[in-house]
Design brief:
The structure holds 2 protein chains of 2 kinds.
Chain A (H helix, E strand, L loop, with lengths): L2 E5 L2 E3 L5 E8 L7 E7 L5 E7 L6 E3 L7 E6 L4 E6 L8 E9 L4 E5 L3 E5 L2
Chain B lengths: L3 E2 L3 E4 L5 E7 L10 E5 L6 E4 L13 E6 L4 E6 L8 E9 L2 E4 L3 E5 L1
Parallel strand pairs in B: 2-10
Antiparallel strand pairs in B: 1-3, 3-7, 4-5, 4-8, 6-7, 8-9, 8-10
The chains are: A mainly beta, B mainly beta.
């Protein structure tokens, strides 16, 4: 069974940093693109970032460029999101998802980890 | 970048059929695949339609997807509505390296 489990969320002050992790199992992690998607409380879904199988290509939504960094460790079957200079508007549930690039399709999704940016 | 516009909410009775639209603001809807996700309260999204009209295994054939180039929109149709279909539904597509989600539609089955 394909499984994605996020961790690392929590309460952080504006301007602070946080590193999210996503542990993957049940599939050959190194063969797939991976993604982060977020959802602010009571709001819709917003794509955050994608990373290619070997980490050589990374793409971000404009609102996080220069502040967030997506990375992966294929030896550990893990995906990461380093978030710096956090703002109140970054408050959201952050989901890890496998990205099927031939259709630009997110499937499956993890259960998410909540990031709250507040003083 | 383009936008995907969905109705904020729809409602229908059990057993009936409902269609949720997803309109693309620029660029052709037919040029890039459209996916549809279901999100029940407190849960992560799951795919109900991918590649415009394909159903993942385990998704009942009551769910179907289509695209209409004349209106530059995609549609998700759910027939034989069940109370368990009550959820938020999101369309998603892309443009070069940017991924875009619609704002979501809350489906109420009453």
């Amino acid at each position: 069974e394909v499984q994605l489990v996020e961790s690392g969320g929590g309460l952080v002050q504006p301007g602070g940093s946080l590193r999210l992790s996503c542990a993957a199992s049940g599939f050959t992690f190194s063969s797939y693109w991976m993604s982060w998607v977020r959802q602010a409380p009571g709001k819709g879904l917003e794509w955050v970032a994608n990373i290619k199988q070997d980490g050589s290509e990374k793409y971000y939504v404009d609102s996080v460029k220069g502040r967030f960094t997506i990375s992966r460790d294929n030896a550990k079957n893990s995906l990461y999101l380093q978030m710096n200079s956090l703002r109140a508007e970054d408050t959201a549930m952050y989901y890890c998802a496998r990205f099927l690039e031939w259709a630009n399709w997110f499937d499956p999704w993890g259960q998410g980890t909540l990031v709250t940016v507040s003083s | 970048n383009f936008m995907l516009t969905q109705p904020h909410s729809v409602s229908e009775s059990p057993g009936k059929t409902v269609t949720i639209s997803c309109s693309r603001s620029s660029g052709s809807i037919a040029s890039n695949y459209v996916q549809w996700y279901q999100q029940r309260p407190g849960s992560a999204p799951t795919t109900v339609i991918y590649e415009d009209n394909q159903r993942p295994s385990g998704v009942p054939d009551r769910f179907s997807g289509s695209i209409d180039s004349s209106s530059n929109s995609a549609s998700l149709t759910i027939s034989g509505l069940k109370t368990e279909d009550e959820a938020d539904y999101y369309c998603q597509s892309y443009d070069s390296s940017n991924q875009v989600f619609g704002g979501g539609t809350k489906l109420t089955v009453l």
